[in-house]
User: What shape does this take?
Amino acid sequence: MPDQESEETLSPEHSSASTSAQQPDLADVVIEVDDVNFSYVKGTDVLRDITMNIKRGEVTALIGPSGCGKSTLLRCLNRMNDLIPTAAITKGEIRILDTNVYDPKVDPIELRKHVGMVFQKYNPFPKSIYENVAFGLRIQGIKKKSVLDEAVERSLKSAGLWNEVKDRLDTSGLGLSGGQQQRLCIARTIAVEPKIVLMDEPCSALDPISTTIIEELITQLKEEFTIVIVTHNMQQATRVSDKTAYFYLGELIEMDDTIRIFNSPSRKETEDYISGRFG
Amino acid sequence: MEVSTQDPPLDASAETMENPLYKKHTAVKRRDATISVLLGVATYAILACAAFIFLDIMRKGAPVVFESSFPFVNTEFFTQSPESLITFEIEDGSYFEMGSSEFYEWKRENPETRIVEEHAHPYSGGGILGPLVGTALLTGICIVVALFIGLATAIFLNEYSSKGKFMDMLRLAIMNLAGVPSIVFGLFGLGLFCLVAPVITDVPQERALFTIPIFFTDSYLSFEGWGTCMLAGGFTLAVMILPVIIAACEESLKAIPMGFREASLALGATKWQSISKSVLPYAFPGMLTASILGITRVAGETAPIMFTAALAHKDKLPWQDIPVNKNANFLAQSGEWTSGFVSQSVQAMPYHIYTVAARIPQNEWTRPMQYGSVFVFMVVVMLFAALSIFLRTRYRKKMKW
Assistant: This one.
């Protein structure tokens, strides 16, 4: 009972905060994670009391040792965890563009059009490069060739792949190198023009050169998209992100400007992790 | 003694200090060798059996099918249906051997010739067109029905259903279907499809389990069964092959990486869009090839069609002489024709082989029909199996993600 009461007293405060008339620095917040608990199986929370704000146009890196819940949180944001029947948010709210994404009125399919995702293992469809990029638009029912052509070219250009593949758009996407395939997946994701792009360790299956290219791409993409990236690689976090959040055992230990996290973290646990004392 | 001291190095070393790396003939080693021989014998015994079957059938069956002169194939064997073989002698001592239809024609043309000795050998004349056509139709219906139900079930089990006790039981039930003896399937088909399955008719039969009048028409939905017909046979075979098809389809679905489903869902696809656009197209070739392999097995089943579809003898091919109301419009006519067509019973290869091999008196004249039928049937089934294996290897090569 006390818990319920406190939630009730909390929520009006927070909703007034999210309208953000008083607090101007919240105006740019696109993702609000508000005191979230999450469990795959009932009774065992793998995320506890997560509260974080992610701002428009920033790259936010989620770091932490394996199993700390960073990928789980990422998959909560576009409700990919819905694929697991028993998985559910047990406390709190995630608001994206001022909408609670776990509201029963929210259609996860519509949500995912606004919150795209790039996966750890690059997974282009065994179709042509063109069809891979056009897939998201086609399933939305767009058939007009000129619209598709334009979207494919724009997306491939944004993903820095256009010059490499423009002469062979009809060949299979699987014929590309690993790094190219991952950029194809990025192009496929941004073709549906999401507001937010989630990246789940996008470089962990790639060689160093491809990784560099993707990292450069991420810094370019943040002009247009808000990016949340999960990474194991702390150097990568320092290179690409504006904000870094450190997770440990399902809890958000610290979130701050990347420079501060890596130079003068306020928590001892963070310092231990980034200095390589464990993890 | 003198000799052994003369050439000491080898002998001496062998006797005094045995090299631990040299072969030793112990009991363990002997058992090892024996076992490997036994295993080999068992394996080669299978090969011998297979070789004997194939070679014997080929040796005796191929001469029936192939000829030494143009067109090198016994066309009559493929263009006629089975009939009796008549052997007879006429007064001048000349001897004849012909199918019954030919014989009656001959008799009509030579009415005054007196036949001295006449023997009829049932099912030994003519060809195997009827059974071939019947088996093709049965397996065709079977493929359509089994793929439709099997695919739907596999998609549901693999993509939609959640895990749980009930689903485990459902899977167990499906797998248990595979263990049901084929004769039981035959009786099941008789009981369900031939006697109880619903039909739409204006005049329900008395034996119907119950009838439901269809509103605004004079027709009834009558649960009177389809009778002994190719539809009932095809459905029975389909039920029988379902476990194989479901397993094959599920296997193919499982082989498609999760990443395809996740990627399309993350792009805002609905569940069915994701399945139909980025799972099924890649799973379908695998499903089809595995299914063909299953179908070849079911094509050779005798018991399930014995009560439900097959006839030992039938003069007409299934599409001949189907009664149609000539005054009705085209749509009604074609509907009537189709229902008349699928209600035909058919001859079928396995049942035909059973007939000629076990239900008629055996003699030298029945042998060509027996071996010819078996040979053709075997080759057809083997061709399908080969096709499925060929398609699978080709598809496996293309499938690299």
